[in-house]
Design goal:
Layout lengths: L5 H12 L7 E3 L4 E3 L2 H15 L1 E24 L5 E24 L2 E11 L10 H20 L7 H5 L21 H19 L9 H13 L4 H12 L11 H12 L3
Antiparallel strand pairs: 1-2, 3-4, 4-5
């Protein structure tokens, strides 16, 4: 009698299990149903028994190698010169928890299938540690057998894709900007500066240059006088304001200086 391969037997079981089955699991929060072990395992076990298939499920800690560090040992001669080196690699490892489902063909001991998936911690609300362990065991077993027999759930990702997001609308109160804004303050300062400038502005046409004032000061010094005092006296004699004397006043100021200091 010709042997039937394990993959062929699994396909036969998959076909039978693909027929209509009812989901007893309900997620009230996300509003969807799902398969529990009791929905398909009794039928799956019956089909495996008919077709000579045996399975073993377990959760174990698996040793996983991690890349190590290279260690370099150098050899030196009596003068401290390197004469050789040895490179070794120090490998590390860690343990990771995995769920394993081994499938055997009872008609051929060498015909097997090995499935392996990493586990995840389960935290049930208000449950004891042993109950969380049982929940993880049931959860992983369900998904391992569903993978083996291609038992399909509804595609939740696709169902959620394209749904409009809920947007919370808020009523915002708009207020008029205060007149004490930065821009208003700047304009106010500009106006104040403008007014101050207009009040202090003097017609500077023909005002005597500083160089000419220096000439007069030096001239007074040569005559032996004090520039500040003499200029004040001269301005008073001529009816001038020292701060606003003009270029055209130069000659008469000099003549007045000669009058006052000529004899000194």
């Amino acid at each position: 009698m010709e042997k039937v391969s394990l993959k062929s037997k699994i396909n036969v079981i998959r076909l039978e299990l693909s027929k209509e089955m009812e989901k007893s699991g309900k997620n009230d929060y996300s509003k969807y149903t799902y398969f529990q072990l009791k929905d398909f395992m009794p039928k799956a076990i019956a089909l495996m028994n008919e077709n000579g298939v045996y399975t073993e499920f377990q959760i174990v800690d698996k040793k996983v190698d991690k890349p190590g560090q290279k260690l370099i040992s150098k050899q030196f001669d009596e003068n401290g010169v390197v004469i050789g080196e040895t490179i070794t690699e120090d490998f590390n490892y860690e343990y990771k928890e995995v769920a394993i489902l081994d499938v055997y063909n009872l008609d051929d001991e060498n015909d097997t299938i090995h499935l392996e998936k990493p586990t995840a911690n389960v935290s049930l609300s208000g449950a004891q540690p042993i109950q969380n362990l049982g929940g993880k065991n049931t959860y992983m077993k369900r998904y391992m057998y569903m993978d083996l027999f291609e038992i399909n759930e509804n595609d939740i990702v696709e169902e959620e894709t394209g749904k409009p997001e809920k947007v919370e609308t808020k009523t915002t109160k708009t207020t008029k900007p205060k007149t004490t804004s930065v821009e208003t303050k700047v304009e106010k300062v500009k106006e104040e500066v403008k007014e101050t400038v207009e009040e202090t502005t003097v017609d500077t046409d023909g005002i005597m240059s500083m160089s000419r004032k220096v000439e007069l000061a030096n001239y007074i010094k040569e005559k032996g006088g004090t520039p500040k005092d003499v200029m004040a006296e001269v301005a008073e004699s001529l009816g001038l304001d020292v701060t606003t004397i003009k270029e055209s006043d130069y000659d008469k100021i000099k003549e007045e200086i000669d009058k006052k200091l000529g004899g000194k």
